[in-house]
Amino acid sequence: MQSIRLAINGGPCDVMVNPEESLLQLLRDELGLKGTKEGCGTGYCGACTVLVDGAPVNSCLFFAVDADRHEVTTIEGLATNDGTMHPLQSAFVKAGGLQCGFCTPGVIMSAAALLAEHPAPSESEVRASLAGNICRCTGYQSIVNAVLTAAEELRTQGRAGERPGSGARLRSRA
Ligand code: FES
Ligand code: FES
After folding, report:
1. Among the four residues 78, 126, 147, 160, which has the most C-beta atoms within 10 Å?
2. How far is the CA of 41 from the centre of ligand 1 (A)?
3. Going by CA atoms, what residue is nearest to atom 2 of ligand 2?
């Protein structure tokens, strides 16, 4: 076992991890952050997408030890402390960007990374950024619409380029 320290959704987290343990296992099985989903477990579906230092990664393929001294943001970190949904979350609900919802946390985290870098993306840029996230239900158009709506809302709120999770609730467990 190895001791690591990381920041999860804005809060410090000190944990012991097995060197072979994935970040996905740490988040779901040890920290109880079940919003991040396990689909394929092999880096294909994107359901497990979280942000490490703002960049989307497949947490099923990312060793937990490699998160040592880095910032991890999960879907639980997007809403604010008072429970207000992130504009991406609101837009997905309004646009019908989800059906079963299994892919949704991963899709939203990929989209959050995109909007932090590109506050006014084109439709094709949205589609390209979500190429690693598989959705079996929606046909994708409603997802793309939701991301474009959220981008507009973030700009309207003066939050264009905001780093995902920067207003996040504290989630930590020593
Ligand atoms: Fe990680 Fe599918 S569960 S990419
Ligand atoms: Fe069901 Fe995307 S909403 S897989």
Report:
1. 147
2. 4
3. 135
Is the full-model pTM beyond 0.70?
A: yes
* pLDDT, tens digit (0-9, with 9 covering 90-100), for 88-108: 999 999 999 999 999 999 999
CA 134 / ligand 2 centre spacing (Å): 8
| Ligand 1 neighbours (beta carbon < 6 A) | 38-41, 43-48, 58, 60
Tokens of 128: 């390209």
Q: Which ligand is nearest to the CA of 143?
A: 2
> What's the CA angle centered on 58, arms 56 and 59, to 5 degrees?
105
Alpha-carbon distance of 169 to 153, in angstroms, equals 21
Angle, CA 114 vertex, CA 108 and CA 117 arms, to 5°: 145
